[in-house]
Amino acid sequence: MLILGIETSCDETAAAVVGSDGWVHSSVVSSQVELHRPLGGVVPEIASRAHTRLILPVIRGALGAAGCGLDDVGGIAVTRGPGLVGALLVGVQTAKSLGYGLRRPVVGVHHLVGHMSAPLLRDAGVAGSIEHPYVALVVSGGHTSLISVEAEGTTRTLGRTRDDAAGEALDKGAKILGMGYPGGPAIEKAAAAYDGPPAEPFPRGMRRRSILDFSFSGLKTALMERVRAIGPSIDERTRAALSLAYEEAVVDSLVTKAIEGCSRIGVPRLVVCGGVAANLRLREEMSSRAGRAGIAVLIPPPRYCTDNAAMIALAGARMIALGVDEVFDLAASPYLPLPGELSRASGPAPSRSRRTGA
Ligand code: KG4
Ligand code: ZN
After folding, report:
1. Is 48 helix (H, G, I), strand (E, B) or coil?
2. Residues 255-275 pLDDT 10s
C-alpha cells in the first residue's frame, strides 16, 4: 500500500510517498531557511504562512515524482506534534481534508516516532533495517533524548537534555559566533575547513557517568564568554577554531552518553536520528567509538535525518495497517508526549526555549 506522508511541524514543508514496506517512492522537502535567515531563527507566523502556500505544490510534487495520483494512495500520515501549533495545523487540516475527500484513513504521527522510523526507510541507496531492542539517540533542534526502544511502540527514556537541545546549542553557538542560521551546518562547515592549532577545549556538561541526561547551556555560556573576551576584533580563523572546539564538545557529549546508555542496559544496537545526525563528525565519531565498544550503529543518510515526510509516512503506515483512522478527530498537538513511554527514572521536562517542540 502507498502512504502519503505530510510534515509541517517547523520550517520544512514536506510530502512523501512511501510503501508500507518502507520503500521511498518520493520525498520532497521545501525548506523555509531563506525566509527565516534574515531574522536569525524560525518565526512561527512566517512558518505557518509559508506552509499554507507550499503544502499543495509540495504534495503535488511528491505524487508526481512517485508517478502516482491521489487515487493510488491508500492512507495519509501527518505529523500531529510536537511542534509549532500554527505550522502543525496546516499539515493536519490538509491531511484530514484529503482523507475525507478521498475516503482514505488518516493517522497522526509523533514527530520523534517519525525520526526513529527513519532508519527503516529504503531506497536505491539504502537498505534500512533494525532489530529490537535498540537504543535511539534523537538529536534535533528541539530534542535531545536517549530512548530505549524495547519493542515496536514501547519506549523508555533513558536520558534527555536538561536545558538546550544539541541542535539548539549549535544554532545558538553559530549566532554567538556571528555565523548565521541554521547554525549546525554553519559550524560544521567552518570546523571542517579549519586546520590551524586547536582552541582550548570547551567544558562538557553532565560529566558524571551515572547520569544519562545531557546539558548544553554551560557550553553556550563558555562560548559567549570567550567571544566577549576576544572582543569585536575576532577574525574568521578564530571563529573557525572555536567552531571546531564547540562542535567537538557537542559531539563528545552525545557519543559518550549514547555508548554509556547502550552499556547500561546491555543493548548493543544504536540508532542515531534527527537533524544533528546529519553532522559528519557525529556520524564518524559515533561509528568508530561505538564500534570499538561492540555496539552496532545505524544512522540514516542525511536526507532522512533532517525533517522529511518519508519518515512520517512509514511511522503512519504501521498505524494504518492496524486499522487506525483519525480522520474525524485528529488535532494538532504542540506538546505531544512520546507514545508508548513506559517510565523514566528522573529528570525535568525537555527545553522548550527554541520553539514548542520537535
Ligand atoms: O530534525 P530537524 O531537521 O528539525 C527538528 O526537528 O528540530 O533538526 C534541525 C536541527 C537544527 O538545529 C540544525 O542546526 C541541525 O539540526 N542540523 C545540523 C546539521 N544539519 C542540521 N547540525 C549539525 N550538523 C549538520 N550537518
Ligand atoms: Zn525533526
Report:
1. helix
2. 999 999 999 999 999 999 999
- Burial tier of 238 (Cβ tally within 10 Å: 0-12, 13-18, 19+): middle
Q: pTM of whole model > 0.70?
A: yes
Q: Domain 2-125+305-341: which CATH class?
A: alpha beta
List pocket residues of ligand 1, CB cut-off 6 Å. Answer: 10, 140-142, 167, 170-171, 182-185, 188, 274-276, 278-279, 306-307, 358
Q: Give the distance (Å) from ligand 2 centre to CA of residue 140.
A: 6
Q: How far is the CA of 117 from the centre of ligand 2 (A)?
A: 12
**Relative to the alpha carbon of 180, which ligand is closest?**
1
Report helix, strand or coil for 102: helix
Q: Which mutation among 109, 113, 140 tests ligand 1's pocket best, with the greatest number of atoms within 8 A of CB?
A: 140
Which residue, 262, 249, 256, is CA-closest to 200?
249
pLDDT, tens only, 183-238: 999 999 999 999 999 999 999 999 888 899 999 999 999 999 999 999 999 999 99
Give the amino acid at 296: A
For ligand 2, the distance from its centroid to the CA atom of residue 341, given in whole angstroms, is 19
Pick the CATH number of 129-300 from 3.30.460.80, 2.40.10.350, 3.30.450.20, 3.30.420.40: 3.30.420.40
